[in-house]
Amino acid sequence: MPDVDRERAWLLTVDGAPQSYVDLDAPTHLEFEYARRLGHVLDGVAEPGRPLDVLHLGGGALTLPRYVAGTRPGSAQDVVEADRGLLALVAEHLPLPDGARIALHAADARTWLQAAPDSSADVLIADVFGGSRVPAHLTTLAYAREAERVLRADGVYLANLADAAPFAFLRSQLATLGAVFEELALIAEPGVLRGRRFGNAVLVASHRPLDTAALARRTASDAFPARVEGGAALRDFIGAALPVRDEDAVASPEPPEGAFGIG
Predict the structure, then answer these.
(1) Which residues of 73-84 are buried (b: 16+ CB within 10 A; e: fewer)?
(2) Of the candidates 64, 81, 260, 250, which has an alpha carbon nearest to the alpha carbon of residue 170?
(3) Could you give the number of structural domains in the chain?
(4) Is residue 94 assigned to a domain?
(5) How far apart are CA 82 and CA 58, in angstroms?
């Protein structure tokens, strides 16, 4: 069940796993490493301060919508979250900043995406976990094509994923998005990419060139630096992985005990 730590800064957990961290006094603060990496990409998708149309699949405590509202005032954002109880809890305890143009939708992410207008978003952020796993129906080629349809021609797709060596899930997701988008990048801690532990990886996809050098500079300055992979190195990482069909889809792997625990 969702729970929040009632202090000045709020930590949202679901079944003991941390999902979101929000500081109501500093809405642009990103505590979790993966959230900061998503923030680095968001900072670079357009000139600083320019409003964007952003679609968030997965709500959590609305950390990233708050970040976009703070760094790009005037942005129009839709947040799709299947857990109505979570939305109600966040609305009660974690009010959104005044003037934030953030619309909340209690719906299944793929169902809502399929009904969304063509070319209606500058950025689509997928951060959907059923407990601690990405649902299978959000991992497929048909889903990726819907995401591409909803994005504008220069739009950017972002996904927070989690995996460990031998990276069957992560490779399949890169192959799936690579079958739809021309450009791919992957951001993760070196220890995760070397297969030393289970962890998060941020996937970036677009039809426009991605400035991986700039992303690498930003992620290198974090307390826990990440590596940015693209081009030939990422194609080598994908290897012989194939795009995922709906009939073959599976949820992301179950994290090992304690992988995302609080402590």
Answers:
(1) eebbbbbbbbbe
(2) 250
(3) 1
(4) yes
(5) 8
Cα–Cα distance, 168 to 237 (Å, whole number): 11
> Which residues, 6 or more positions from 157, have their beta carbon under 8 angstroms from its beta carbon?
123, 124, 126, 147, 148, 151, 177, 181, 203, 204, 205, 206
Helices and strands (H, E) in the chain, number of each type:
9, 11
Residue 53: domain span:
33-238
Q: Which two tokens stand for residue 44?
A: 């670079």
Rounded Cα distance, 210 and 206, in Å? 7
Strand, coil or helix: 194: coil
Please state the φ and ψ torsions of residue 76, each to the nearest 5 degrees: -100, 125
CB atoms within 10 A of CB 98: 6
pLDDT tens by residue, 74-91: 999 999 999 999 899 888
pLDDT in tens, 163-219: 999 999 999 999 999 999 999 999 999 999 999 999 999 999 999 999 999 999 999
Closest CA to 191 of 259, 251, 239, 257: 259
Tokens 């590596």 -> residue: 227
Say if strands 121-126 and 151-163 run parallel, antiparallel, or are unpaired.
parallel
C-alpha triplet 113, 119, 120: angle, nearest 5°? 65
Identify whether 176 is part of a domain. yes
Which residue, chain included where needed, has tokens 């994923």? 161
Q: What is the CATH number of the domain that holds 84?
A: 3.40.50.150
